[in-house]
Each structure stands twice: as structure tokens, then as C-alpha cells.
């Protein structure tokens, strides 16, 4: 490695010399980008990479993160041939043990889900499990899920090999240099300050591991992550121990076990860990090791002795505790910062940095070179980050829960419990009084379902019908058959104003927002490749004033995207006004019957058409009423000054009782929107999907004056045709459920995966939106033809496919 002599500039500066930073450098160099400098504050691997356990397991929680591990496997298989330095990778397989009926249900679902990524996985009975791993105690064992292509390797060896491959192609790696500041100009990163001088840079990559939050703060980028104490134990050598046994992961015992050089390593994802250095990672020489804590760890180790009895007579050679960085939602951060161009982040890997790092570096390098991610990863996008998530107290509470839940059963609809309540609607008390059972999204408390009198307000998690199923069905039917009201106050609201507001929004939007005052426009914002960066509605409330409605989890992202596209010479401002207004969606065939007697406004079809928005009197106050729907029924969204929200709630509640009005939660809203095949950004669509594939071509105004960002790419896609589309499905078996990521088969061929799903109480079966891909460009009809099946927990279930909404395909109900 070179001495601490910095160049004046570099095309890319990478901060962090762990496996992710070196992988990014290596893959950039392989793409021909060699004007790259990697800066490491201590020595390579000295952050958390050096003490990684070395597991390579493909069973990640989302389709995209599994694809990242697939890329890592490619690196493990090919790197030594390229560099001459071994990664130490050995294919051993992994077995996820089932020691309870709930675990058995979980692994059956997981086995199906991973097949959507073409990952080999097999459910084994007890005898076969013991045959592959004879050290296990079979007591309480019900079977296992076996991943034969999994393995293990050396984090240090892999990092050094990646560094060697990068430097031999011209990358400069400089150790012992600390970044002390980040330079920016006009919303773009321009370089870094260090203890050895300043480097101008076109791109900066934050791969600083535990220091990633502090480095982000230097650039004005929120990166919530927190180091936690993380333990493993290595035994003395065990006589006659078989080599290269499958790695064992036992969730009910919060542990994994692998053999290592004639000994066993037992690692833990146990409840009750603690935050380390939450006020800032100290300056040190790296290779941090935290004190032993047998009082804490002992009970978990003893429990694992019961599962692997040979541990009882094995001495302990090493009791290791080191810090690992975790994130509030348990998902790492990978991608470009939404508010700072060319500042890329790869941090917060929740103790899966070794197995994800080589692939993450590959993704990041392609992203920088090509201008877009090669893998669809909305779940890792920094745009999901909320400001409160970098609050130290919030981080400490929430990341501890992330670790606590790591090896628990991963239930459908599982809710977080820590650091709540934080953000509440003006209607929080009223919805609570009405029986609301709250979930949390982006810090917001939201009524997911309502418990009738006498019903306990809590979740009983299950892979079958949950305890709230029938209650949510009742809410669903209220909106389909009568009227319901949903507190949607958590939705994001962006006020866009100024002389150039029309031109800015029209440049971003595929639809034409230059409408009459009092009209709402549904539209997407695209990137240059035609991918969907935002899915919003825009209401023109004055000549130069618009209100953009976005989801609570995407509003920060959409705000940053909008600001990014306002030119320096344009008169246009945007403000997040989400907290100033409550919002109630009043939906159902009797919505007009409910609202009309409470206002002097004419709500008839002739005088208040679908898509219109205006301020009306309601009760004793005024609200903005917009005739629109996200559930496929007649209705109005009411934007209400926060101080008047309770008045409107109680007014509607009392007037609606004889009409069958019910308060309705988000679980029902989701089942209603899926029956109507309405899309949700981050679940069904994202930046890797275009409107033609997504069935949203109807929003695109191709000949709009001035065009829109991404039009050229979208026109090319339109001319060439597509081989991939978003399709609606309903299962033929009314007793089966769907959740997400289940594989889709057409005529016995794997063709796609479920994006989002819930039970459709009107359609009478589980309903889903799923991506289907053909081998070549085909006609639209191909996607509805053929024999479709969706695999659920190892069982293929017949499904009906449609490119038109299965509920009210002509969209007549909202317009009556």
C-alpha cells in the first residue's frame, strides 16, 4: 500500500477499507474506472470486517438483497482466479432448524420465496438433517431448510484479495488517513477533507462502517445506524470433529454454529444486547474488542449446548464481543443520497456485511458507472430515512429491537414496538377511542385495524388467518357496500409554489399537470432510463400553487427529488406541509349520502366530477374535498386544518351511524386497493420499472409540450415492446394466503414473483400484484394466457391472471 501522499483529485473517493469499500474499488476498476482512491482511517479490515464470522447465507429478507448475495457468490467463486489470493470460501451449505410448528411454517414459506431468486433450497426431515449434521440433538427437532450452495469464507482474506485486484488495475489505497469533512456545491459532492489534505472528487462513496453516520453528517446526509455489542464463542479443538459441516442456524436458540479449524464457533443474535458508543465512535487504532459478558451470554450458550451436546465438553478458546452497526429497520443503506448527488452510501449491514459486501460493491460500481442500479433495491434506498431516525435515543431503542428480532420468527404484518408513539395524527385519540390497533410507518402511528368492543387490541401473529382477519374484512365490506372513513393524515403533503411551479412539475411528470385550477392529476416521475422514481397525485389549488400527495414513507424522497430538479434560475419553492393538515378518506357507495347533508356544496356527479378538488364548507368549518379514490369506490379525500380534525371526525361518525359507517384501517385499505390493482411505490413499482411494464401507460401524455424527464427512453421502450409486466392475480383456493415474494409459475415455468398481496374479501381469495417475465418481447395477451400457479409454502396453487382490475374493471364505481 502507498504512503500517505494524497492526489489533488480523483474521479471516485471511497471512504472505508473494509470488504464493502474494497469491493466497490475492485468492481469500479474492473469496469475501467481506475482513477479511484480508497481511504482507510486505520488499516484494511480494521473496522468490523476483521471479526466477521464468515458465513455466506442466501436467505435474506427481500428479493433484491438475495440478488446482492448472488452477486457475492459470483465474487467468491471467481476472485482467486483473478487475483491469486484466496477468499477461503468453502461450500458447506446452511441448515435453518425448525424446532417448533411456527418455525416449520416459516421455513416452508421461506423455501418457496427463495425459489423466486432461483436459490436452491430443500425442506429436510429430521433423519436427513441428522445425517448431514450428526452433532445435533434431535430432541424437539421437526426438520430443517437446507441451502446446499451456501458456505463460508475468510473476511480478511477476501478483503485483501479485493484490494489486490483493485490496486493491480490502478486504484490507490491509502491507509492511516481520516476524512474530516465533505465538500459540496450546488447539491453535489465535490471532494473530501482529510488529515493529510483535500481531494477533489466527482463521486464519494461512504463505506465507513460504524463511522458511516458521522461521515454522512459531514455531508448533510442522514444515515441512521448504531453499533451494538455482538458476540461469538470459539471452542478449543474438538477431537474427531467432522470438517465442513453445514452451518446451523437455530432461531429458537438465537444462535448459529459452524466448524472452524477443528473447533466450533457459536455466534449469537440474542435479545438484550446494548448500544456501544452511541454518542460517536471514538478515534482509535481499529480492531475494537469489547469486554466479555458471560452473565449475559451464558444462558444462550447453555441453550445451544443442549442442541449441540459436544459443546458441553469443549473448552472455550475465545469469547469475542465486537461492535457491529445496525439500522432501525434492519435493512442496510445502499445507494445515492437523495439530497446530495454523487454521494453514495453502503453502510449499516446488520452483521451481514461479509456475505453481502462483495455483491454490494458490485452493485454500487455498476450504479456509479451506468447511472442506475443493476438490482431493484427500493428497500435499501436512503430516501426511506426519516429525520428522527438519526436521533440518538430513537436509534438506541429501535436498533436494539432490530437485533432482538433478527432470529425470531419473521411473521407477516409484524409490528415494531420500540420508540413509540412518536408521530401521531390529530385524530389519534379519536381513532384510539374507536378501537384502533395501531401499526407504525415512518414513525407515524396508523390505525391498521379496529377491534370491536370486547375484542383485545393486539396482534396474534400467524402464517394462517390472523386474529384481525374478520375485523378487517368487516371494514373492507363497509367500503365496498356502504361507507367507511380512513385516517390518512400520515400521507405526505408537499406545497409547490411560484412562477415556474407549472413548468417544474410538468417537466417531472409524465401526465399533464397544467390543468384547470381545482383538478387533481395522477402521475409518475421518471428517471432518465424511464424508471418510476415517484408515484404521486398533484392538485392544482391556484395558478401557481400545487399540492403533491405522497406516501408517508416516500415523502422525503419525493421532496428531495423535486428539489433536485428545480433549476437555479427557476422561481419555484417546495415545502413539506404534512403536519399542518389532517386527512380523512371517506369512501364507499354511500359516501355522497353521508357528506351531502353536512355541506352546502353540490356533491352531485354533474357538479362535482371525479378528479375535481375544491374547498367546501363541512359542519362548522371548511375543508378541501377532492373526489378521488385509492380503494376503487365513490369517495372524497378531505384535507382538514389540524385544529378542526376532531370536529369533522365526530360530525361524520354521528351522521354516518345510520348509513353503516365504519372507521377503516390500513390493512383493509391495502386489500381494497389490491382488488382494484392500484400500485404502491416501493412494493409494486420502483425506479427499475417503467410505466409501460407497470400498466400505467394511461398516465403518459406522450405529446405534452416540453415533454418530460425520461420520455426518450420511454418512447424507445414503447417502440421495442416489453417482456415483463405487472399482473394482477387471485388464488382459486379461497383458503390460501399470500404475503410477498412468492414465485409465480406459468405452464410449469418460473416466470416471476409476487410483489404485494393481501386477502381480497370481495373477490373471495388472496389477491396479488406480481411481476411476470417472458423470454422475449410478447403481446399483452401472453401475460393473461396460460396456466398460472403461485407457490405457497411448498404448494403450488392455481391463480387467475389479469391485466385489467379484477374488481370493477371499467372503473365505473368511483365515477357514479
UniProtKB/TrEMBL annotation:
Aminomethyltransferase C-terminal domain residues: 724-808
Domain FAD dependent oxidoreductase central: 370-425
UniProt cross-references to InterPro entries, sorted A to Z: FAD-dep_OxRdtase (IPR006076), FAD/NAD-bd_sf (IPR036188), FAO_M (IPR032503), GcvT/YgfZ/DmdA (IPR028896), GcvT/YgfZ_C (IPR029043), GcvT_C (IPR013977), GCVT_N (IPR006222), TrmE/GcvT-like (IPR027266)
Pfam families referenced in this protein's UniProt entry, alphabetically: DAO (PF01266), FAO_M (PF16350), GCV_T (PF01571), GCV_T_C (PF08669)
Record domain GCVT N-terminal: where: 427-704
Domain of life per record: Bacteria
Residue ranges occupied by any FAD dependent oxidoreductase domain in the UniProt entry: 12-367
UniProt family annotation: Belongs to the GcvT family.
Name of the protein this chain belongs to: FAD-dependent oxidoreductase
Species annotation: Nocardioides furvisabuli
Lineage: Bacteria, Bacillati, Actinomycetota, Actinomycetes, Propionibacteriales
